[in-house]
Amino acid sequence: MQLKELASQLAVSHILGDGETVVTGIQTDSRKVRPGDLFLCISGLVTDGHQYAAKAVQAGAAALVVEHDVDVEVPKLVVKDSRYAMAVIACHFYGYPSREMKMIGVTGTNGKTTSTYLIDAILSGQGFRTGLMGTIQMKIGSQVTDMERTTLEAVDLQRHLRQMADVGTDYCIMEVSSHALDLGRVKGCRFRTGVFTNLTQDHLDYHGTMERYQAAKGLLFSRLGNEFTGRSDERQFALLNADDPASAEYAKQTAAQVVTYGIDSEADVRAERIEISSKGTRFRCVTFKGTADFQTKLVGKFNVYNSLAAIAAALLEGIELDAVKSSLEAVHAVDGRLEVVDAGQPFLVLVDYAHTPDGLDNALSTVKQFTKGRVLCVFGCGGDRDRTKRPLMGKVTAKYSDYLYVTSDNPRTEDPGQILLDIVPGIEQSGMPAERYELIADRREAIEKAIARATPDDVVLIAGKGHEAYQEIMGVKHDFDDRQVAKEAIRGRFRD
Ligand SMILES: CC(=O)N[C@H]1[C@@H](OP(=O)(O)OP(=O)(O)OC[C@H]2O[C@@H](n3ccc(=O)[nH]c3=O)[C@H](O)[C@@H]2O)O[C@H](CO)[C@@H](O)[C@@H]1O[C@H](C)C(=O)N[C@@H](C)C(=O)N[C@H](CCC(=O)O)C(=O)O
Ligand SMILES: Nc1ncnc2c1ncn2[C@@H]1O[C@H](COP(=O)(O)OP(=O)(O)OP(=O)(O)O)[C@@H](O)[C@H]1O
Ligand SMILES: N[C@H](CCC[C@H](N)C(=O)O)C(=O)O
């Protein structure tokens, strides 16, 4: 594609050099540039991509997108904001793949991964070809790859959406993080349905305030039906959690048809008569397409919300309630979400991905509901992330646990000992006596101690890392899988 064609997509830009220069790929990271690529210099939060222009050209970049001139001898497309230009250019370069599929985007603090998995299970159960993108995995056709991010940068996102469209995908179900919305990663994507799960504290390191965090998530809904992204004939839906106060605001901002789900409110799709056990959940689902009794294998009230979101999304696609019911009831636990670790021990061990105060509240209150003995909880807080959530996570875990093992999550570049100390004020505030919690920076040791203390009827909940198979310390990802470590600890204890 010629540089001038890409320039024509941007309202404000000019070319320095030959506009007929052909680019054969797009790249935002100088270390990944291939000959013929267009290298976009992004002024980032940590470093400035313009500094790597020369390196990109050495690697074969045929042209650059810049915000100001840089001293390298290739044609340049000068733009006002290269991050914004990135999404526009990527959509055009890859031929607007989101217009060739029905896209369902899920945003919210917690429940995105679970909801996308459930929607995927129902739609693929109906024979639709589905693609999936989110925190755990990306599925394109029959190919499944692990993911490092919740929502990809625009260039990578559009490239993968093109692959999805090319293999004949009917529906792409994707998680849309608040970072992605704020940084314009999904700009230009045409969503058929935007789903909102909930809004509680997280990521204040990035967004600063809850108001800004809420506004970032709102971009998914304010753009739905408002931003021209092609195929304007098709209806679009904002599927909102009626029990979350943020939904009222999102409903006002969207031009899409608002459909609600909930438990405590009069929603379009709602659950009644909820019964929760350690094996699963029963509820009656009242919808605009009839009523049905569900018995799912997913545990907890929060999973009723995730189920309702998925049921509503599927009903909006014209799937009958009976068919929705049979697909949803067949779903087992999602990877690392209240996942049972069974190595033959006489007590229940669960691994969960709760890593926010509300996620922990939901996971632990659910566990507490069906635990006859004591709740032993192992948890920590990630480094280089919202520090203000740490005492809140301490407080909520102390509220529900009989014994707490405060340990490291992914310390990243922070001092693990300091992260633990940041959690303690919350535990103290809850009034938990000092003999009922321990600070153990080594996560393996913490898991081993919890397993060693458990007796029949107790439940050990290992929270925070769920499906993650690593622990990130000072930029190095060490092999570490809570499920594996827990199994080893159980085998160690019951060896004889
Ligand atoms: C806040 C955030 O999302 N930042 C992301 C963003 O950083 P940035 O734009 O500030 O980039 P930067 O690191 O300053 O670099 C500037 C530019 O120089 C380029 N560069 C840099 C070095 C080099 O040698 N060569 C080079 O070309 C970079 O590729 C980039 O284009 O772009 C970078 C390149 O793609 C990302 O690595 C970085 O993610 C950071 C590491 C991150 O941790 N992001 C997390 C918080 C995130 O996005 N999380 C959400 C999930 C949240 C949820 O739970 O809901 C997600 O969607 O994954
Ligand atoms: N609807 C919900 N409301 C509150 N908590 C939830 C909900 N669904 C799941 N959780 C809790 O949050 C944890 C993470 O769930 P899930 O992976 O589905 O969320 P997510 O939004 O994808 O998270 P992230 O984007 O941070 O990876 C679960 O392990 C569970 O403890
Ligand atoms: N998407 C979330 C995941 C957090 C997972 C938790 N294990 C941690 O490292 O804090 C984030 O990047 O904040």
Automatic annotation (TrEMBL):
Meso-2,6-diaminopimelate binds at residues 385, 409-412, 464, 468. It is an enzyme of class 6 (ligase). Carboxylation is probably crucial for Mg(2+) binding and, consequently, for the gamma-phosphate positioning of ATP. Residues 336-466 form the Mur ligase C-terminal domain. Its EC number is 6.3.2.13. A motif (Meso-diaminopimelate recognition motif) lies at residues 409-412. It catalyses: UDP-N-acetyl-alpha-D-muramoyl-L-alanyl-D-glutamate + meso-2,6-diaminopimelate + ATP = UDP-N-acetyl-alpha-D-muramoyl-L-alanyl-gamma-D-glutamyl-meso-2,6-diaminopimelate + ADP + phosphate + H(+). Its main location: cytoplasm. Catalyzes the addition of meso-diaminopimelic acid to the nucleotide precursor UDP-N-acetylmuramoyl-L-alanyl-D-glutamate (UMAG) in the biosynthesis of bacterial cell-wall peptidoglycan. Belongs to the MurCDEF family. MurE subfamily. This is UDP-N-acetylmuramoyl-L-alanyl-D-glutamate--2,6-diaminopimelate ligase. It comes from Paenibacillus konkukensis. The lineage of its organism: Bacteria, Bacillati, Bacillota, Bacilli, Bacillales. The gene is murE_2.
